[in-house]
Amino acid sequence: MARDEAHSPFFDRDADEINYDLWHGYTKLKRDGHDARHPFGHGLSYTDFAYRAINARPADNAIEVSVAVTNTGSIAGEEVVQCYIGAPGIEAPRAVKQFKGFDRVALAPGETKVARMCVALDTLRWRDGARWRLEHGPYRVYMGGSSASCRMTTLIV
Question: Are residues 54 and 31 in the same domain?
Answer without folding.
Answer: no
